[in-house]
Design a protein that fits this description.
Blueprint: H1 12-18, H2 50-56, H3 64-74, E1 83-86, H4 91-103, E2 108-114, H5 120-133, E3 136-141, H6 144-158, H7 172-186, E4 191-194, H8 218-234, H9 243-256, H10 261-266, E5 271-274, H11 283-294
Parallel strand pairs: 1-2, 1-4, 2-3, 4-5
Helix pairs in contact: 4-5, 4-11, 7-9
């Protein structure tokens, strides 16, 4: 967040007006207004939360040259493509596709998965991007979210706890990860580029209730499993349908396990990397570029462009 202004730099009257009242029982960040109920939040003496400080901290990028080195090292000798891009139709991944094709001149395979809840606006953005850029495109569907959403929602409504709100997307992450690895194997591509650039877009909010460690470390994985086990014990309805335990095991195996045997079995040697670890996230530039050059449009059903790939997220 490049325009971060510490509370200490504000006018004293304004700072006092924004300082959260302890008597009200609800504290909020004086900068972003996140409440004290947000998982693992803390405030400094000016009432600014740790998440604001994290976003304002300088980011160390690996750079475009390093990106090209990785792509060159991982390209298979007989592969048609330099890499595959996970294209969801959102801003991050659409610009990632544009950057790799137009800026770096790479031969790219775009991969999109429809979870049966992809908005029509998003589908249009995907089709426009691959058409304008002239890239090969694989479009697949998976049924995991469609299978899981009703029993998960029914169980959650019986005991609607914030710790389990992320379970409404149960099956989507696992189905996407499995499909992506299958496509990489089928098209002989060792490198998958993902576009998680918006602050927090590569995080899973629900996991913050259970662990502050990276979820693919052994410590984070153990705390994550223990946290979900406690929630299932509180609400046995999560076991009322066999689809829920099945999707839980699948999603953990493909998405959250620190050392995933399933990922290695499906597509040995495949590596995923985030583009915005190498190049800066410039929201204005990204949005303007894809709107002008690719005809990308902000979703009509939401005031913000964040997470436009699923109706459930919206």
């Amino acid at each position: 967040m490049s325009n971060f202004v510490p509370a200490s730099a504000l006018d004293p009257a304004e700072r006092d007006a924004r300082r959260p009242s302890r008597l009200s029982g609800l504290r909020r960040c004086t900068r972003c207004i996140l409440p004290h109920t947000f998982p693992r939040i803390s405030f400094d003496e000016d009432g600014v939360c740790n998440y604001c400080h994290e976003q304002s901290a300088p980011v160390s990028l690996l750079g475009e040259n390093k990106l090209l080195e990785v792509i060159k090292a991982l390209k298979r000798k007989h592969s048609v493509y330099d890499c595959m891009v996970a294209l969801s139709g959102g801003r991050d991944s659409t610009y990632a596709l544009h950057y790799l094709v137009r800026e770096l001149g790479l031969k790219v395979l775009a991969y999109t998965v429809d979870n049966h809840f992809m908005p029509a606006d998003t589908k249009l953005n995907v089709n426009n991007a691959v058409r304008v850029l002239g890239v090969d495109h694989v479009w697949q569907t998976h049924n995991d979210l469609k299978i899981g959403i009703k029993p998960v929602l029914t169980a959650w409504m019986h005991q609607p706890r914030p710790e389990m709100i992320s379970s409404l997307c149960l099956g989507c992450r696992g189905g996407f990860a499995q499909g992506l690895l299958n496509a990489a194997k089928r098209y002989h591509t060792k490198l998958i580029v993902t576009g998680c650039g918006e602050p927090g877009s590569d995080e899973h909010l629900g996991l913050k209730f259970f662990t502050d460690k990276p979820y693919r470390t052994y410590g984070g994985a153990i705390e994550l499993l223990a946290g979900f086990a406690r929630e299932f014990a509180r609400n046995p309805r999560y076991f009322s349908r066999p689809a829920i335990p099945y999707l839980l095991v699948k999603e953990y195996s493909f998405q959250f396990a620190p050392t995933s045997l399933f990922r290695r079995m499906v597509s040995p040697g495949t590596r995923q990397l985030g583009l915005y670890r190498f190049i800066p996230w410039d929201e204005d530039k990204i949005t303007q570029t894809i709107q002008i050059e690719l005809g990308w449009k902000k979703p009509s059903y939401a005031s913000a462009a964040y997470r436009s790939d699923s109706e459930i997220c919206a």
